[in-house]
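Why do we bother with holo predictions? Because pocket geometry can differ from the apo form. Keep that in mind while you read this record for succinic acid.
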Amino acid sequence: MPLTLTRPDLIRSANFIAGQWSATPAARLAVTDPATGATITEVPDSGALEARAALDAAHAAFPAWRKVPAKQRAAIIKRWNDLVLAHQDDLGKLISREQGKPLAEGKGEVAYAASYIEWFGEEATRMNGEIIPAPLPGRRMFALREPVGVVAAITPWNFPAAMIARKIAPALAAGCTVVCKPAEDTPLTSLALVLLAQEAGVPAGVLNIVTASREKTPEVVDVWLDDARVRKITFTGSTPVGKHLARRSADTLKKLSLELGGNAPFIVFDDADVDAAVDGLMAAKFRNGGQTCVCPNRVFVQRGVFDTFAQKLAARVAALKVGPASDPASQIGPMINDRAVEKIERHVQDAVAKGAKVLAGGKRLPELGATYYAPTVLSGADARMACACEETFGPVAPLTMFDSEDEALQAANDTPFGLAAYFYSQDVRRIWRVADALESGIVGINEGAISAEAAPFGGVKESGYGREGSTHGLDDYLHTKYICQGQLD
Ligand code: SIN
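The structure, written out:
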C-alpha cells in the first residue's frame, strides 16, 4: 500500500547538515517496511566525512545559539511542538510504516513526543542559577547553569519520534547544539522531525542529522567519540553498546546519558486487585508489541491469585488482534526485523524445553508475514530460562509463581539490570516496603503506564545512568559554573 501523506515532502532522503539537505554520500541505505520488507525510500549511508561535517556545523553554531535569550529559544521549541502536533497524522503514518506499530500507537507516539518538546520548551525559561550566601566578608557567590556544548544523540528504532524528542528538546532548551544519528531501521521519522524543527526556526547548524546503516554507524559515531568538541553523548539502546560508548568517551571525558537494556519484573501479590493487574500488564507488556525497554520481562505472581491471573491474562492475550500497522483493528504489528523474531522464537523454545507451558500464542504467524509473532503467555517460567536473563523485546509474558514477599523481591532484583519494575498490591505497608527494596530507576505501583514528560526516566545498575524527561532530564545538558566575586567591601 503506498504511503500517502498530506505533506509528501515530510519523507526526506537526505542528511541535514548546517541548515542544508544534502544527499551525499552517493551510497544509499534502503528503509523498509518491517511488515513486508518493501523499500519505502532510501537515505544516505553516511560515513566519517558526513559525521565530521555535521560536527563542524554544530560546533560553529554553538556560540550564537547559547546566547539566544532563553525566551526566544523557548518560542522556537514551542513552534516545533505546534508543527509536530499539526502533522500528527502524517508523522503517525510514517512511524507505523517504518517501525511497524499500529497506526493508533504511531499517532499516540507523536503526541508523546510532542509532550517532551512542549515541556522542555517551557522549561528553557526556568534554568535558574543560585545565589550562595558567602562564608567570607566582601564576596558574592553564584552558581550558574550553562549548556555543556555539542551533544551527540544516538537514538533507537522502537520510538523513532519520542526518543529523538526527549533528547533534542532538552538539548535545544539548554542552549546546546546537536549532531544526531537515528536508528538505521527508522530514520524517516527523525528526518521529518528535523524538517519541522527547521520550519519552526531552529537556526542552521544547531541541529544536524546524518543517517547510516548498521555497518557504517561505528564510522560515524567514532568521529564524535574521538572529537573533544563533542561534550555529551546521549544514547538509548543496548547495554553492550552503552558500555562501549562509556569506554570510548573516557579519553575526552564526555558527559553521558545512557538509557540501556531492561529486564523489568512485574509482581502481583495476593492482595492485589487482579483485574487491575491484568490491565496493567496488558498496557505495559504489549505496548509496541513488547518492544520497549521498560516493558515487563518477568512476571511473578503469588500462589493465591496465580491461576485466576494466568487464566484472565491468557484470555486477554489470545484476543489481541495481530496484523499490519495500516489495519485500524491491529493491536500488535510486525516485529522490527527477522533478528527480533528469531530472538523471541529462541526464548519461547528455550522456555518450553526447560518446562514452561504455553497458555497463549507461542508461535510465529507466517500467514501474516515473516516478522509476525503471536502474543504469548507462558507459565512455569524460572531463572534458568533465557527469557528470565535476557531482554526478549517482544510480546512474551513468562509467569513465575512465588510464595513470599522476600522470595519475589530476591527474584526481581536478581538481574544486572534496573530500569523499570512494577507491582500490584493494596497493602499500604507492603507498597512502601517493596517500592524501597526494588533495585530500579522507575517503579510503577498499581500502574502499568509510567512514562511521562514530567517524570525522570532512567535506570540503575547496567540499565545505565542519566535521566530523560523532567528537570533532571534538562540538568543532564547543563553544567554548573561557580562564580566568586571578591573585593566587595
Ligand atoms: C523505551 O523503551 O526506550 C522508552 C519507553 C518509554 O518512553 O516509555
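Residues 158-159, 162, 236, 292-294, 451 surround succinic acid (CB under 6 Å).
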